[in-house]
Every structure is written in structure tokens, then in C-alpha cells.
Design goal:
The protein is an alpha/beta fold and about 575 residues long. Helix content is about 55%, strand content about 15%. The chain is built from 24 helices and 14 strands.
Length: about 575
């Protein structure tokens, strides 16, 4: 409204007239009243209400494709079923109040429903519901169990929906939940995150274990999920949880390992140590978890589970703070923040392999996303990746960084080899499987790429960065000549990450090949906004597609989309 009041009101009116009102009427609903930018509607059928909401949100996603962030209109929808009081055409009551509060906690562009709605609609609406647990709603006396309605067409395999439990792997499987920060200081949040991250990394190095990616387990951060629900959604037998309290130079760390099916505590321990002993405590927790679950694995491997520790705890802290900014997939601001933090880490500890590998990733991402100095960025990225491997050749991140540089540089075989090295050191490394899938796709081996994406999705079924998996799937479909499917996957990717430049590029190319002028032009406009250097000449010189015939087809699609 602050940017364009008249235009916003005009778009809101158009959405009401062209989408909301007809769809509500289609499902036999009645608009009770409007409230500025909102409305209250009543339905005789719960299933009709849910289907109506899903169709409205799907319609808004279509309408928002290509819209700049400050011009999008996104809506939240809450649905409840309950007794109401009718008076003068309006409706009142606790049932209405709960629906309003559920709308407040729905995510942008999402739908949140009460348990009673889920019970009535599940299996009848064709939609999937994700359990959000009990919620304390403003001015509602009792906790309300809430569910998120997954977007139309969203894959259960990519979301870990509570409706279907994933099958257990054929080896010990574990999820490490983010350790709680009990310090009372939000600034120490990175410390508990870093502890969780390093334990996941250490466990993942054991080939006999199946370990869920940190991106999926961190989706539970800030919540109090039921351990059995977590195990069902992630498809694991064991869950590790704990807490960290830091006071000055002292730490108190607790950890407990739970067998999810029975709820039994397999192992629990408390550590009171100096902050300087953090890495030793991480090792002890990991070793105790492994020994409790699968002692023969521990005995057979008999290795130091922790990746080579940095010399500086402050350098480690900068790396942990940088990592969330690397998962954004395309925001230049986040890449700049990550670069600044990682440069500080390298300055403090010139031999810190993880800092070098992530810094390599940052430089390579800049080239991948459209830097005008792509060749220079890749040169620096490769040098940093080699430095990381030199400092710690057993760190899978070092080989992942090298693989990323080679992929973006169109060096197909070295990219496949390095991602293979990363996976050999961490078979549960979802990011490495995703990058290997991307490498295969750019190399024209779409079927092999889809196989790797399937593995990545299983290792990270609730990945908050799943936009990458969706986009790589779309790239594979483009390479197979399945342009409609490619547009669909890329659209879902940019819904999750609106600044995901490579996804917009592939959407523009695929829609161009389809002859869909509206979608292709909108996507191309986003490409130009996010990548001012985007030209057909840049794509020919720097895009990672290896085979000239595939690259020519991609460029043809972009040309039809309006790029020059």
C-alpha cells in the first residue's frame, strides 16, 4: 500500500472479482463480510471449504508468478468447523474466532486448519495435511491442534507429511534435532546450532548409519515436536535431542537418545565443561550415541568421528553463523553476508577446511547466479576448494565445494568424481546427492540425475531448502524435453525461494520452448531483475550445460522468452 495504494486496491479488487468470488460460489460458499484486505466465508461442507481454499491459493500462486516482491499479494487462510451464532447476516462464536486465529498462524500463501477440519477432510479432499501439533492461540482458552494443508501437487516424498510414515532404512537411522539454547541469550543461538550441525556431520561419516540432513531436522527448530511424530515424518528409528547452556567460559550440555517406536531412552548424559572443550564434548556425544545404537559399527570404524576441529572457536562461530545464509539459494544479500563472515573465519584460522570450502561455495554461487566476472569467481572458488582439501581431505564439504566449481565450469567428469568423493565420506550427505544430480542434469544425463534427487529427498524429507531439489528436477525434465513438467517444478522452486535465479532461468527456457508467452515473459523479467548480466551471450559462455546441442535448446527457449 505504501508503494502504490491505488494499484494495490485495483489488484485486490481484480483478485476478488476474477478468483475469490467465483471459486467460493463454485464450492457453494457464502461471503459473510469483507474486512479491508480480508473476508469471512461460510460453507455447508468442510470438504468444500478446504477444496475452495486450496484452489484459491493455487490460483494466487499462478497470478503471482513473475510479480516483483513488493507487488505480490499473498493471502493466509484459516479454516475451522464449529457451532456459530447468526445475527443480521453476520456469524459469531468460538468457531469463528478459532478460524481467525488459525489464519494468523498460517504461513504466507498457506492454509491452516483445525484438527476437526482435518479429520473430516482427510482422504476426501485429495489434499495432504501436515501436523503442526498443539497451538496456543490468542484469546482461545484451550490449545488447538493445527494442520497445514500442503499446496496442490506438492509431493509427499518432499515434505515428510504426517499422513504417511516413511519406511525405515535397512540400517540404523537417526535424526538429530536442533539442540535447545538454554542460555537466555538469543545471541548464543548459533552455539547450539553449531553443536547440532557438528554431531550430524560426525554421525554421517559412518557408512553404517542413515542420518537425516540438518536442513530437515532444523525445520523443527523453535517447536516442541513429539519424538514419535518426528520419527514418522523423517522415517528414522532413533532421535537425538538435547540442550546447551553457556555461562561465561562454562558449558552445560545435555543429550538424550530416544528409540522412537517405544519412546524409551537408550542413552542420556550431562556434561559440565569449559567452552574450550566443546569439540571434545561433540566427539563424546557422537561416540556414545554410536556405541549405544550399533557398537559393532563403532568398533569396526574406530575412527575420530569429528571432522578436523578448527584452531579457533571464534572461527567456528563465524562459520556456523554463515551457514543459514548459504541455504537461501539466490539472495545476493545473503551471499554477501556469508562471504563477510567466512572471510573473518579464514583470517582467524587460515587452516580451517570448512571455512575455505564454504567460501569456495560462495564464490562459485556468484558465478552460477550470473556474475559478470564469472571466470575470476570460479578461479578463486577452485583455489579455495583445493586449500580446503589440502587442510582436511576427509571433510566431505571440501570435495563438495570442488565438485561445485567443476560443475559450473563445465568440467563434467571432475565434478562427478568430486561429488562422489564427498558421498564416499558421507553417504548421508543430501547436499552432495543434490549437487551430483545437478551435475548429471547439466551433463545431459537426466535419468541419473533423477535417481540422485530421489536419494537426496529421502535423506532430507522435510528440507526447508528443498527448492534446490525441485529446481534440479525441473532441469532434468527440461533435458528430457518434458517442458510442461519442467515449468511446474521450477514454479514450485521459486514459490519457496523467490530470489532463486537459476530456477527462474530454467522456467523461462522451458516455458519458451512450450510457446507459453505469458509465463516465459514473466520468468524472463525475473531473470533480468535478479541477473542484470543475463544475455544469450552470457548463457553461451558461462551456463553450466555441457553439451552444445542441449545449450542451444536452452538458449532457444530463452530467446523465445524475450532474452537477447
Amino acid at each position: 500500500m505504501g508503494v502504490d495504494e491505488d494499484g494495490t486496491l485495483a489488484r485486490l479488487t481484480a483478485h476478488r472479482r476474477e478468483l475469490f468470488d467465483p471459486v467460493i460460489a463454485k464450492y457453494r460458499g457464502r461471503i459473510v463480510k469483507t474486512t479491508g484486505d480480508g473476508l469471512l466465508a461460510e460453507f455447508a461442507s468442510v470438504v468444500d471449504a478446504v477444496r475452495c481454499a486450496a484452489e484459491v491459493q493455487a490460483g494466487m500462486r499462478e497470478r503471482n508468478v513473475g510479480a516483483p516482491a513488493d507487488r505480490r499479494l499473498d493471502f493466509r487462510i484459516g479454516i475451522n468447523v464449529g457451532d456459530i451464532v447468526q445475527q443480521d447476516g453476520d456469524i459469531f462464536g468460538d468457531g469463528v474466532n478459532i478460524a481467525a486465529r488459525l489464519e494468523n498462524i498460517a504461513e504466507t500463501g498457506g492454509i491452516c486448519v483445525s484438527a476437526r477440519v482435518q479429520e473430516d477432510a482427510v482422504g476426501k479432499s485429495g489434499l495432504v495435511f501436515e501436523d503442526l501439533g498443539e497451538q496456543t492461540l490468542k484469546n482461545i482458552a484451550r490449545p488447538i491442534r493445527a494442520y497445514r494443508v500442503l499446496p496442490l501437487g506438492e509431493s509427499r516424498a518432499h515434505t515428510g507429511s504426517a499422513e504417511v510414515a516413511l519406511p525405515l532404512p535397512d540400517k540404523p537411522s537417526i535424526a538429530v534435532l536442533p539442540f535447545l539454547n538454554m542460555s537466555g541469550d538469543p545471541e548464543q543461538e548459533y552455539f547450539s546450532d553449531g553443536l547440532s550441525e557438528d554431531i550430524i556431520t560426525a554421525l554421517s561419516k559412518l557408512r553404517g548409519f542413515f542420518v537425516i540432513s540438518r536442513n530437515s531436522t532444523f525445520a523443527y527448530k523453535g517447536k516442541a515436536p513429539d519424538v514419535r511424530q518426528v520419527a514418522r515424518e523423517l522415517g528414522v528409528r532413533y532421535v537425538l535431542e538435547g540442550s546447551v547452556r553457556r555461562a561465561g567460559d562454562r558449558l552445560r550440555i545435555t543429550g538424550q537418545l530416544i528409540e522412537a517406536a517405544s519412546g524409551a531412552h537408550v542413552w542420556a548424559e550431562r556434561y559440565d565443561r569449559a567452552v574450550a572443550d566443546l569439540f571434545a564434548v561433540q566427539d563424546e556425544i557422537t561416540q556414545n550415541v554410536v556405541a549405544a545404537i550399533e557398537p559393532q559399527v563403532y568398533a569396526a570404524e574406530n575412527i575420530r568421528l569429528q571432522t578436523k576441529a578448527p584452531d579457533s572457536l571464534d572461527a567456528w562461530g563465524y562459520v556456523i553463523r554463515a551457514m543459514p545464509h548459504i541455504w537461501t539459494w539466490g539472495s545476493p544479500q545473503d551471499i554477501d553476508i556469508a562471504n563477510e563472515l567466512l572471510q573473518k573465519a579464514v583470517a582467524l584460522d587460515p587452516n580451517y577446511a570448512r571455512a575455505h570450502s564454504l567460501l569456495s561455495w560462495v564464490y562459485t554461487a556468484r558465478a552460477h547466479l550470473g556474475s559478470e566476472n564469472a571466470e575470476r569467481e570460479l578461479e578463486i572458488g577452485l583455489a579455495l576448494a583445493h586449500k580446503a582439501i589440502e587442510n582436511d581431505s576427509e571433510d566431505p564439504w571440501a570435495h563438495l565445494a570442488a565438485g561445485y566449481v567443476h560443475m559450473v565450469s563445465r568440467r563434467f567428469r571432475p565434478a562427478v568424481d568430486e561429488t562422489g568423493e564427498a558421498i564416499s565420506r558421507n553417504a548421508s550427505f543430501a547436499m552432495a546427492h543434490m549437487l551430483r544430480a545437478s551435475t548429471y542434469a547439466y551433463g545431459g544425463l537426466a535419468d541419473e540425475g533423477l535417481e540422485e534427487i530421489t536419494i537426496a529427498s529421502r535423506l532430507s524429507p522435510r528440507d526447508h531448502a528443498q527448492a534446490a531439489n525441485l529446481s534440479v528436477t525441473g532441469l532434468c525434465e527440461f533435458m528430457r524435453g518434458r517442458y510442461t513438467e519442467a515449468v511446474d517444478f521450477e514454479r514450485r522452486a521459486v514459490q519457496l525461494r523467490p530470489h532463486f535465479g537459476t530456477a527462474w532461468r530454467t522456467m523461462a527456457a522451458a516455458a519458451g520452448m512450450l510457446g507459453d508467452e505469458f509465463v516465459s515473459r514473466q520468468a524472463a523479467a525475473e531473470v533480468r531483475r535478479l541477473q542484470p548480466s543475463a544475455t544469450l551471450d552470457w548463457v553461451e559462455k558461462h551456463h553450466p550445460i555441457v553439451r552444445p546441442e542441449d545449450r542451444a535448446r536452452y538458449i532457444d527457449g530463452l530467446r523465445r522468452a524475450g532474452l537477447t
